[in-house]
Design goal:
Elements: E1 2-7, E2 10-13, E3 18-26, E4 30-39, E5 46-52, E6 57-59, E7 67-72, E8 77-82, E9 91-101, E10 104-109, E11 113-118
Parallel strand pairs: 2-11
Antiparallel strand pairs: 1-3, 3-8, 4-5, 4-9, 5-6, 7-8, 9-10, 9-11
Length: 119
């Protein structure tokens, strides 16, 4: 079983920065992809950014050039550095992990952390 613990959300003014962290714990798994998704009130959950085991990244167009995803493989931790935040970035941010256990892949979600950007 894999557990994800997120931290780093909060309230920030437009133009400010926040850094989210997500640490994975457990045993018997190897991480394939880690990423961040977000869900604003009344909207569907959407992809923000992902990073695979080789370090390749993928970003939503809306955050390109402002957000940076990175990972520390030794700590099984993924980070999301968010700069130049806008009110439309306000959402609950969820960490996602795709892991291989044995011959199967599983998807795990964090509990979510609130990010609020005031104008």
């Amino acid at each position: 079983q894999v557990q994800l613990v997120e931290s780093g959300g909060g309230l920030v003014q437009a133009g400010g920065s926040l850094r989210l962290s997500c640490a994975a714990s457990g045993s018997g798994f190897s991480i394939n992809v880690m990423g961040w998704y977000r869900q604003a009130p009344g909207k569907q959950r959407e992809l923000v950014a992902t990073i695979n085991s080789g370090g390749s990244t993928n970003y939503a167009d809306s955050v390109k050039g402002r957000f940076t995803i990175s990972r520390d493989n030794a700590k099984n931790t993924v980070y999301l550095q968010m700069n130049s935040l806008k009110p439309e970035d306000t959402a609950v941010y969820y960490c996602n992990l795709i892991a291989t256990m044995g011959v199967r892949k599983y998807a795990y979600w964090g509990q979510g952390t609130q990010v609020t950007v005031s104008s």
